Every structure is written in structure tokens, then in C-alpha cells.
């Protein structure tokens, strides 16, 4: 109940812009006493929110905390489902593990797990993911689409487009997508996406989408072995970004594209994805469990499978691989 009242309070501040809201108005709006409103205001201050209080005018938020909090993400959230239920942790092994358990416990679609730090963050094929504290966006989103299980990999591509669009809008940088799940800027990795499925033979129970974004890391923060392959939005844009704002934007873009995908199928997503793809028309090496394949990337199928034409002109369909640009 307390978290629901806090959410209503933050929604009120979001809708008010820079206007003051009186204690009486807030009490009536969220359904509690003026004393309870004051207590909620004090809790927000403890989280790092700066609130201005003026007699006979009320309150307004003038500054949000540098550290991400669930309340800061909710302040200005532009979605109907994604992010309406937020599970926040200071430090976790992996947001995917927590999201999986929440999913098994019946968490609603759109539940988001956010952490300031992952000690065992991971990407595809159980690779470690560098997730230092207070610098990036480490989150997992629970979706429950009414789809056949074989369609689930398409949600990785839906998410990739959403992340690229959010970065473009916030920074004016144009990232590129490397099939199937990497977002690149100037050839260096900025974001990884990990999609995990819980399903029966004919139905999806949940899809958990993990998103790891390098946001405010500076060059000296990276281990030497990552300097040539990874970067951050701060390094590339020259500006420190508001991570909560970025999360809100990613969730808004993802909800829009997810709904579009459910209503109209994969084709509109496919066109968007290919417009951002770094490898289309280029020579690549696809490193697969069964061996390497070299050729030209032609695009993706209507199911999101990569098409690769080898030197003999034969077209291969690549379902899972690491891609190296030549």
C-alpha cells in the first residue's frame, strides 16, 4: 500500500511539471492525511530527491537523485505496463535471476528488475558482463506474450530497435545493431541484450529480456582487455546522462514496439531492424558450434533468422552465432 501511495504521489508531481502542489491537494488525490503526505515527502528526500516547500503553495520536485531509485524511474514514466511494477536492488548477482524468480511467483507483465550493480552479470553463452556500480543500466523486463515459443527470439530484435531509438532520441548518436543482440557505436559495444524463455511446448509462460547498457563509464574505468571492444554513451557523446530518464525512454520505446509487434507481426520490426543493422551487405564470419561460415550478410528472414550468402552463392540460414565483421 505504501508503494502504491508513493507511486500516486510521483505521478502527481510528473503531471504538474514545475507547478507547486499543496499538501491538501496531494492528500485528497492519493487518499491519505496531510501528515502522511509529509512523511512520504520526507522519504523521497532520504532517497535523494530535492523538494521545494513554500507556504500556501505546497511542494515541487526540483532535483532527482543521481542514484537510480524505483521512484525516480516512475517519475515521468510514459508507459501503461512496462515499469509500472519495479523491483529495485542496490547490488545483485544478476537481474535475470531475480526476474526469473519473480516471473515464477506470478509477477505481472511489465515488471522490471533494476540494479545499480551486477556482480555476476552475463550475456549470451554465459559470458561475463562488466557491470560497475552507479554507471550503467542493468535491468530485466518480464513479458508474457501470447505467442508460440519459436517466436520468442524475435523479441530480442524488437528490444534492440527500442534501445537504439531511445539512444538516438536522448543523445542524437546513431547506434548500429549487430545481429542478434549487440548495439554498437563506432564499432564498439554499448549494449547487450539477453532473452530467456520459460515455456511449454505450445505456449510461452514468460520471456525475460535482460538489457545491459554502458552509460556513464569513463575511459579509465574499463579493464584494458575491453578498451578496444566496449564504450559508453558518456565517452561517445561527451555528456553525463540521466540513467533514469534513459530507462524511462527505453521502456516507452519497447512498449510501443512490442504492442506493434503483437498487433501487426514481425514485418514492421524487421524493416526498422534492418535500417539500423551494421552487417547488411557486408562480409562477415558467423562463428557457430558446428563451425565457422564466411560470406555476405543479406538480411534477416521474416522470423528474424540471419541470411548469409557464401562465396559459392549458397544462402545459409543462421539461427545462432557470434558475428565478426570483416
Mean pLDDT: 89
Q: Please report the first level of CATH classification, the CATH class of the largest domain.
A: Alpha Beta
Give the helix proportion (percent range): 25-40%
CATH homologous superfamily placement of the largest domain: Bira Bifunctional Protein, Domain 2
SS field, number of helical segments: 9
Terminus-to-terminus distance: 55 Å
Number of strands: 14
Strand fraction equals 25-35%
Largest sheet properties: 7 strands, mixed
Radius of gyration: 21 Å
CATH architecture designation of the largest domain: 2-Layer Sandwich
Q: Low-confidence parts, pLDDT < 50 over ≥5 residues? A: 123-128
- Shape assignment: elongated
Family: Belongs to the biotin--protein ligase family.
Domain BPL/LPL catalytic: 71-262
DNA-binding region: 23-42
InterPro entries: aa-tRNA-synth_II/BPL/LPL (IPR045864), Bifunct_BirA (IPR030855), Biotin_CoA_COase_ligase (IPR004408), BPL_C (IPR003142), BPL_LPL_catalytic (IPR004143), HTH_11 (IPR013196), WH-like_DNA-bd_sf (IPR036388), WH_DNA-bd_sf (IPR036390)
Walkthrough of the structure:
The strands form 3 sheets. A 7-stranded mixed sheet has the order 3-4-5-9-8-7-6, sandwiched between helices. The protein has a 5-stranded antiparallel sheet with strand order 13-12-11-10-14, with no helix packed on it. Mean pLDDT is 89; it is low at 123-128. The chain is built from 9 helices and 14 strands. With 326 residues, it is of the alpha+beta class. The termini are far apart. It has 3 domains: 2-63, Arc Repressor Mutant, subunit A (Orthogonal Bundle); 70-276, Bira Bifunctional Protein, Domain 2 (BirA Bifunctional Protein, domain 2), CATH 3.30.930.10; 283-325, SH3 type barrels, CATH 2.30.30. It is elongated. The longest helix is centred in the last third of the chain and has 22 residues, at 243-264.
